[in-house]
Amino acid sequence: xxxxxxxxxxxLDDRVPFLARLEREDREALLGLxxxxxxxxxxxxxxxxEPSSYVLFVTHxxxxxxxxxxxxxxxxxxxxxxxxxxxxxxxxxxRPRSATVTALEPVRAVAVDRDRFTVFLTDSPAVSxxxxxxxxxxMRAADQRRIEFASMHVRERLAALLLELAHTNAxxxxxxVELLVPLSKQELAGSVGASRExxxxxxxxxxxxxxxxxxxxxxxxxxxxxxxRIARAET
Length: 235
Known about the structure:
Elements: H1 24-31, E1 35-39, E2 44-46, E3 54-60, E4 63-68, E5 74-80, E6 85-86, H2 88-93, E7 100-103, E8 107-113, H3 114-123, H4 125-150, H5 154-168, E9 170-173, E10 176-179, H6 185-192, H7 196-208, E11 212-215, E12 218-221, H8 224-231
């Protein structure tokens, strides 16, 4: 599948990881400031609301970024993988962390203390501009997705989300497109602005139509063409 198959196909710059935006010398110097940490599957790398004392650079494995409301409503905000930076916003502003970052598989990351990171940015204009560009790309992509989602019904939003996950984190097999991200129904619901029960009903409908096959935190897409039509409100 190509980017043209997805809603928001013109806003993929936010998927270019931070470290890939840097020159080799800057990348090595930045990582050299920190220490490597290892996380097991389902370990929490960063906790929402905790004070910020460091940033993390993911060097291996994938993570999910989620945020929970006071009433327990939880939404998937993003997926971050090799080359991505997490925790930078809280580090730069000094505010508590706005989201939780959890390992989806074994993860290695380099932790750089907040003070070292900010001094490095001050002394390295090119790296500062790269971080500014990343922030701008992420905000623009988030704004565009919000606009697109606001014009869709829940069924269309779920189809668009599954297509995006298939594009970014999936394994293509003869049996279909297997998503590599183990998401709960609650996380899917939070991502599309719906209740868990609504998402459960929509997934059951997709299963009954032979569009997807689901298991415990597993999902395989069998009919990408149907999801595309649903996401574009053509059915």
